[in-house]
Amino acid sequence: MTDLSPLRVALVGNPNCGKTAIFNQLTGSRQKVANYAGVTVERKAGRLVTPAGRRVQVLDLPGTYSLAATSPDEAVTRDVCRGIYKGEPAPDLLVSVVAATNLRLHLRFMLELRQLGRPMIVVLNMIDAISKQGLTIDIPRLQAELGVPVVTAVGIKRGGGQNILAALDAPPPPPPTPLPEGTDLHAEVRRLLALCVARTSERKQLFEDKLDRWVLHPVWGMLILFVLLFIMFQAVFSWAQPFMDMLDNGMKSLGDHVGALLPDGVLRSLVVDGIIAGAGTVIVFLPQILILFLWILALEESGYLPRAAFMLDKLMASAGLSGRSFIPLLSSFACAVPGIMSTRTIQNPRDRMVTIMIAPLMTCSARLPVYALLIGAFIPARHIAGLFNLQGLVLFGLYAAGILSALVVARVLKRRATTDEHPLLLELPNYRLPGLQSLSIELWQRARIFLSRVGTIIVTLSVLMWALSSFPAPPAGATGPAIDYSLAGRIGHLMLPFFQFIGFNWQICVALIPGLAAREVAVSALATVYSVGASEADAASQLAPLLSAQWSLATAFSLLAWYVYAPQCFSTLAVIRRETGSWRLVWISTAYLFGMAYAASFLAYHITRLISG
């Protein structure tokens, strides 16, 4: 009888081996994302049931080139594989993922894993691309030489992991016999390649070579990168609008339906104006956020991001950094928290610290609702030269302002650096079409995380803002707006003397407070203090014309400038503390971001007033 006891496996491999694509292929939506206890290194854990009925837990370990760790994420992979990571039981099986298109590099790390003497299988991923290189791999011979099972996979294609599932159904293989002490692993790799890999035709990768001549060109490559980023920000407005309209109508219908079921009173106001309006003003911006994530994920899976990092190495050097900082900073466009976490791959301690300090200047997706609201309210939806969306151009300008400011800040922070600069060494993976299944899973994860924030943090803060705006009730005979007598009104008026110099009114001052917990809450906070309820219509669509009628253009530009630089949400500050272990850097980050935000808003407000009269 076949033993189908539960199995705990760890996916291990070099960066760019397709390990995460295989993880998504195997686990689908049955996965969760968390951090290792004690360190802010992302871990993905998933579960699956094999065709024979075996329950398997899969752990996706951070990619590494060697067990001789040089960064914290590599140390986690090393310790988990060795079974010495505190609080993490040793895996029953190591699944070594090897890119079939780059065996010379990836086999060396696989041999390191083999030396651990733990049960393992080898997965030759991207096996469909090997013929383009004019090569064939003698898989039975390779398996015999390694002494471990070898299976093939295509991680980005549906059904591309069937061979892995069959291997997981088989009895766990015995631990391999380690190579003799002192074996030269590079020489062993050369021996394996000579025995198991043969060239059958001329190399067929000419298209990729030609493409790299353009993509990596010092002039045309930068232009291609600029165009890609420009189109990405244009798409955030242009592609998302139909989906935003659908969500608009859905939230309006929900508000009307619930409002009709509840009698007038505090409960109806709480549910309709506090919960539904608060959640609805943020949910409608979900399409824009997902389109931004879609672009970043597609660029990553296509193999373009390492090339972009290589292209920007000289530009980053002008700020005292290397191209290795590019990917953490690009990740910060989605959210500064994972961007800061991903700096653990930067080996130079000072480069890592500076990258952490400037990551909050990258415009995270949580700021998109604020940008979209103000741009939609004050910038006309027209096209320039019949091609470019004016609103998209303004959005691109806001992102560019954050990027240029980050380079300046990095240069200032690095001006006294005495550490040696190390040349950038990157593996450039083969180009490949992003897998639709993998993209769908990753987007669903982002949507689920965003909606969980809506259902917890954002709704909680919206209800709090509703309470602050509703109580206490105005005294008998009061003639002013009811909100002026509420706690929110009093707090806003107390803050006004400091913020009035940059054009903010007391309603904006109130909205800034919950925005410290989650940036996107500022939109629902404005809807609350302006008494925009979901029962009237969709709160977001009602708020834009209200703001354009009551605010000056100078005030709108001032608030946009504020959000380019303003101190980040509490979770960002918390991860800075956790990554650096220093409260001093947290306070420095908060102080310099606040100072830049106030200065930029002051200039934007007064220059706009001067120009517009």
From TrEMBL:
Spans through the membrane: 214-237, 275-298, 353-381, 393-413, 450-468, 585-607
CDD domains noted in UniProt: FeoB
Chief location bin: membrane
Topology of this chain in the membrane: Multi-pass membrane protein
Source organism superkingdom: Bacteria
FeoB-type G domain segment(s): 6-174
Keywords noted in UniProt: Cell membrane, GTP-binding, Ion transport, Iron, Iron transport, Magnesium, Membrane, Metal-binding, Nucleotide-binding, Transmembrane, Transmembrane helix, Transport
Xref: InterPro entries: Fe2_transport_prot-B, Fe2_transport_prot_B_C, FeoB_GTPase, G_FEOB_dom, Gate_dom, GTP-bd, P-loop_NTPase
Gene Ontology molecular function terms on file: ferrous iron transmembrane transporter activity; GTP binding; metal ion binding
Record's subcellular location: Cell inner membrane; Cell membrane
Function: Probable transporter of a GTP-driven Fe(2+) uptake system.
Family recorded in the similarity comment: Belongs to the TRAFAC class TrmE-Era-EngA-EngB-Septin-like GTPase superfamily. FeoB GTPase (TC 9.A.8) family.
Name of the protein described by the UniProt record: Ferrous iron transport protein B
Organism placement in taxonomy: Bacteria, Pseudomonadati, Pseudomonadota, Alphaproteobacteria, Acetobacterales
